[in-house]
Design goal:
Pfam families: ABC_tran. The chain has 253 residues and is of the alpha/beta class. It has nine helices and ten strands. The strands form two sheets. A six-stranded mixed sheet has the order 6-7-8-3-9-10, with helices on both faces. It has a four-stranded antiparallel sheet with strand order 2-1-4-5, covered by helices on one side. The structure holds adenosine-5'-triphosphate (ATP). Adenosine-5'-triphosphate binds next to α1.
């Protein structure tokens, strides 16, 4: 369980204090316009940045109090870009720094459709392939594998993990993430620009604007046409709005 107690930052980029819980079993989507503070919030949730006020706790202990090795086994961050100085084979990079067995690594490669690329150098991958490698690496870091025996309560944080994926890979990844939450008791938190993916797969959504969380709740409650039109300054196709199921976000011509 990840818990935020009045977590905020004052130095640029500033973030208005926020308190909430990210419970196991849920997929949370963080959405908002460019520059709203989504990546900033994710770095706070991961512990890579320490808040100026308040604290983020994992299982009751502030993130900065955790032993680095133990923390790495309990929470993983998938950044937006893969930046590497070496042309590691995919399989080696995915396993790097983890205690995963060869069988576990193969299982994780298979989950992300990466087995055909396992021997390829990571500097010779497409954008979408690189993105899937980064997710696979995070899953290995958390101890996922063939046995799927990862202790419940692991936290997986992802910054725009679908931005380079085709629609089939988007669906497979979002189903995998939701399944990890629901079936393996993980906390999964995804920054997403695609509001339809957030609407379809997230249990809860946080909407950010100018360094502040301005709405939180189910996709139906947060992703309303009026709110999205105002926050994103976008004109939506009203004929696509639905009240009986997950909202559908379509731009007006
Ligand atoms: N190191 C920094 N120093 C000062 N301002 C920063 C710094 N990093 C980011 N910012 C600013 O803070 C704001 C929030 O940035 P952040 O990357 O968190 O936004 P975001 O919601 O993830 O945006 P995007 O959707 O474009 O990825 C932006 O206005 C950005 O320009």
């Amino acid at each position: 369980m990840l818990t935020l107690y009045n977590v905020g930052v004052t130095a640029p980029p500033a973030f208005v204090p926020i308190s909430d819980r990210l419970p196991p079993g849920e997929l949370l989507a963080i959405v908002g316009p460019n520059g709203a503070g989504k990546s900033t919030l994710l770095t706070l949730l991961s512990g890579y940045r320490r808040p100026d006020r308040g604290s983020v706790c994992l299982d009751g202990m502030p993130l900065h109090g955790w032993n680095a090795r133990q923390l790495a086994r309990r929470r993983a961050l998938v950044a937006q870009k893969l930046t590497l100085g070496f042309d590691w084979p995919v399989r080696d990079l995915v396993a790097l720094g983890s205690t995963a067995s060869p069988d576990d690594v193969e299982a994780v490669l298979s989950m992300l459709d990466l087995q055909p690329l396992a021997a390829r150098g990571v500097q010779h991958l497409s954008g979408g392939e690189s993105q899937r490698v980064m997710v696979a690496r995070a899953l290995c870091q958390l101890g996922l594998g063939r046995s799927m025996s990862m202790p419940s309560g692991g936290v997986l944080l992802l910054d725009e993990p679908t931005s380079a994926l085709d629609i089939g890979q988007q669906q497979r990844l979002m189903r995998l993430l939701r399944g990890l939450a629901e079936m393996h008791g993980m906390t999964v938190c995804c920054v997403l620009h695609d509001l339809n993916l957030a609407a379809r797969y997230a249990h809860r959504v946080w909407l950010l604007e100018r360094g502040e969380r301005i709405a939180a709740g189910t996709p139906e409650a947060v992703l309303t046409p009026g709110c999205l039109a105002r926050v994103f300054g976008a004109e939506l196709d009203a004929s696509a709005s639905r009240t009986d199921q997950a909202p559908l976000v379509l731009l007006a011509p």
